[in-house]
Design a protein that fits this description.
Blueprint (H helix, E strand, L loop, with lengths): L18 E3 L4 H20 L7 E6 L11 H8 L5 E7 L5 H14 L3 E6 L2 H14 L7 E5 L1 H5 L6 H20 L7 E4 L3 E5 L3 H12 L3 E5 L14 E2 L4 E2 H13 L4 E4 L3 E8 L2 E8 L8 E7 L1 E4 L3 E3 L15 E3 H10 L8 E2 L2 E2 L2 E8 L24 H15 L4 E6 L10 H9 L3 E4 L7 E4 L16 E7 L5 E7 L1 E6 L1 E3 L3 H7 L26 E3 L9 H18 L4 E4 L4 E3 L9 H5 L6 E8 L2 E8 L19 E3 L4 H12 L11 E3 L2
Parallel strand pairs: 2-3, 2-4, 4-5, 7-8, 7-15, 8-11, 15-28, 17-26, 20-21, 20-26, 21-22
Antiparallel strand pairs: 1-34, 6-29, 9-10, 12-13, 13-14, 16-27, 18-19, 23-24, 24-25, 30-33, 31-32
Helix pairs in contact: 2-6, 3-4, 6-15, 7-8, 7-13, 10-11
The structure holds flavin-adenine dinucleotide.
């Protein structure tokens, strides 16, 4: 018996003692009615034995019990019909806590278990394991989160948090009353991954997967590996040449017999599901390098399709109207291609004596200020890499040509990565002049005109004038003539609509591919077996891109750890005896192939019946309510389980000091 645990209403040294409540309160009377209803349900289902439910409530070392009155909670839920054991422990996830659960199942014949503790994300699997060790089906277990959703969320309302805990546990007990044992869904697993996109993210993911012994098909649409980094020079914050980073990764990919590299190729069709994706790839596989198609069966897909720099509209800040208005990628290329011995900066016949860098072009766009994109939306997101890129380029320009005046027009400066703030500090020290504008009032970039509205003949003033209401001088209206303007463009997602449609990929409001959860499942998408790597997901710098690609590879590799893919059993199921083959459910299903009408023989006749593909069904439940014959249910979340949950939630709960009398059994 552990020192840090004791049972409800008992002295600390008499832990885990079973308790029964003599209950003639309203709560008890309501439960009598519920109990009767459940007994009738069970009778109808042909299994009249009353379930024996064990409820285990965790103090979480005070994280829960400092707010929730766990002892009173245990007393009250101990009165719920079917609950035969109700215990409290200081750390239910500890070995003694888990042993207690397994032993109780074995010794007391429990056939359902509820644990009320922290988020299921942390310990649902832990307790399913404890339940399995007690020889009970792990899906006859229910996890209730009374920490994140209870004590932490309601720390200033202990009574409310206690009432909430009681209701949530009672609902869980209700759901379990009608639960049935379930088994993991096991599907064949093809131990091969398809990585789409051969930028640094794709190369890194492919190399990491191969290092774990997994065969990889790396498909790149262009003729070379490296993606956008092929267009960059020195990269912040390490000042390494981008080409070195690409070359290093390319070596790992090309010298690897586990990686099959397909350049100039595209994935044109994808169907199937985790462990079993069937894909069609088009590339130069035909005779004499002609285009042809090739099928590939893979277990997991990593999307590393990257980004495209934002391209300003014609005329946006004079882009494509004045040859000396360029974007950051164009400026970087210009600098790369410049004769290293050049003493002055000449471009397009213009001697460049002053350069203005303009932040947030095509990013952080505002309603009513910026013109929407062709699809009517605005790029409201921050592209995250532009500030550091601009400061790095501005500083490099000042150092190379100290006589050139360099101006920086920003809304904010976001140099968030390690070492990146130094670019800002050093740019200031080197004489870069900063102007700050309000987002609602961006600078105007116009041709410089003389007083008569003509282009000036004098070369003293720059041919382009930037006017700005400068917030660093408390809103002064300034006009700055320059020879060149560099537009700090952000990132937009690569155009992969075909893949989005064939794989059914979710995208965010920003059109980048969207993960399931930014913190808890950051590289997974809602389609099982499909992972995200790098800037296909969001603007990222090189370090973040490589981290994300590494994470995607590890996640994909984990899918191949078992011979079979194991999936949760919470998918739809069809009762063929109720199905009439009308197919309304199929039309409502958002997951292509998850629900289909198939032909079956019934009483010597060929009829159509709905059938679930467990590999594709995500268990969303959209098919259940649309069936007029109630032929569909969601395993683990059947309608009768919801009904019992609602009964539990709605029952009256004794308040504060109104505690039922306790009777302790031996
Ligand atoms: C101007 C600018 C400067 C930058 N400078 C820096 C810097 O100094 N330091 C830093 O840390 N970060 C910098 N970045 C960010 C850096 O460029 C990215 O982090 C990095 O390039 C992302 O790599 P990726 O592999 O995710 O995408 P990408 O480089 O875009 O690679 C994607 C690849 O996928 C391929 N592809 C696309 N669609 C398909 C398809 N359907 N099928 C097959 N292949 C496909 C593309 O051809 C490409 O090869 C900068 C960004 C910009 C815009």
């Amino acid at each position: 018996m552990s020192d840090n645990s004791h049972s409800t209403g008992q002295p600390a040294n008499e832990d885990h003692e079973n308790i029964v409540l003599k209950d003639d309160t309203e709560y008890g009377r309501q439960h009598e009615i519920i109990k009767q209803k459940q007994a009738e349900d069970r009778e109808r289902a042909g299994d009249p034995a009353e379930p024996k439910v064990g409820v285990y409530i965790c103090r979480c070392g005070g994280n829960i019990s400092d707010v929730v009155d766990v002892e009173r909670t245990a007393q009250i839920v101990g009165m719920v019909p079917g609950v035969t054991i109700s215990k409290v422990h200081t750390f239910m996830c500890s070995d003694p806590g888990q042993h207690m659960i397994s032993n109780d199942i074995l010794e007391n014949g429990l056939d359902r278990v509820v644990v009320a503790s922290c988020s299921p994300f942390l310990h649902e699997q832990t307790f399913r394991g404890a339940v399995s060790r007690g020889n009970l089906n792990p899906y006859l277990y229910e996890h209730v989160n009374i920490r994140e959703q209870g004590s932490w969320a309601h720390k200033h309302d202990p009574e409310g948090a206690t009432q909430l805990a009681i209701r949530m546990i009672t609902a869980a007990v209700g759901r379990l009353q009608n639960a049935q044992p379930l088994d993991l869904i096991k599907l064949p697993n093809h131990r091969k991954a398809l990585v789409i996109g051969g930028g640094i993210a794709g190369m890194k993911a492919a190399a990491e997967l191969a290092a774990r012994g997994i065969l990889v098909l790396l498909v790149e649409s262009s003729g070379r590996l490296g993606g956008q980094l092929n267009e960059r020079g020195r990269v912040y914050p390490s000042e390494t040449m981008a080409s070195e980073i690409v070359a290093d990764l390319e070596k790992q990919v090309r010298n690897n017999d586990k990686i099959d590299l397909l350049l100039n190729s595209k994935v044109t069709a994808v169907d199937g599901f985790i462990g079993n994706f069937r894909t069609v790839i088009e590339g130069p596989f035909g005779p004499a390098g002609g285009f042809d198609k090739r099928d590939a069966l893979v277990g997991a897909i990593v999307l590393a399709t990257g980004y495209r720099p934002y391209v300003p509209r014609d005329g946006e800040f004079l882009y494509h109207q004045d040859p000396c208005v360029v974007t950051t990628p164009e400026f970087i290329q210009m600098m790369q291609n410049m004769d290293p011995a050049a003493k002055s900066f000449e471009y397009n016949g213009r001697n460049i004596r002053s350069v203005a860098f303009l932040h947030c072009v095509g990013s952080r766009q505002l309603d009513g200020v910026h013109e929407p994109q062709p699809d009517g939306t605005l790029n409201k997101y921050c592209s995250r890499t532009c500030c550091s890129t601009i400061l790095q380029q501005a500083l490099a320009l000042r150092k190379r040509f100290p006589k050139i005046q360099v101006y920086d027009f920003h809304r904010d400066i976001r140099t968030y990565g390690r070492g990146e703030e130094d670019y800002y500090i050093n740019a200031s020290k080197e004489g870069v002049v900063f102007f700050r504008f309000n987002g609602e009032d961006p600078p105007q970039v116009e041709r410089t005109m003389d007083a008569k509205g003509h282009l000036p003949r004098s070369r003293k003033a720059g041919p382009i004038t930037i006017t700005v209401k400068d917030m660093l001088t408390w809103g002064e209206d300034l006009a700055v003539p320059v020879d060149m303007v560099v537009l700090g463009v952000g990132m937009t997602p690569s155009p992969i609509q075909d893949l989005i449609e064939s794989i059914k990929l979710p995208t965010g409001e920003d059109h980048f591919l969207q993960e399931v959860h930014p913190k808890l499942r950051p590289v997974e998408v809602a389609v099982n077996g499909v992972l995200l790597a790098g800037t296909a997901q969001a603007p990222m710098n090189i370090q973040e891109t490589l981290n994300a690609a590494g994470a995607a590879a590890v996640k994909a590799a984990a899918m191949f750890a078992h011979e079979m893919v194991e999936l949760n059993p919470f998918v739809a199921s069809v009762d063929s005896s109720l199905c009439c083959g009308e197919g309304i459910c199929v039309t409502q299903c958002d997951y292509e192939g998850a629900l289909q009408l198939v032909e079956k023989e019934v009483d010597g006749q060929t009829v159509q019946r709905a059938e679930v593909n467990a590999g594709l069904c995500v268990g969303c439940g959209a098919c259940v309510p649309v069936c007029p014959h109630r032929a569909l249910e969601l395993n683990g979340w059947r309608l009768d389980q919801f009904e019992s949950m609602v009964d539990g939630l709605m029952a009256d709960i004794p308040h504060g000091d109104c505690q039922p009398e306790l009777v302790h059994l031996g």
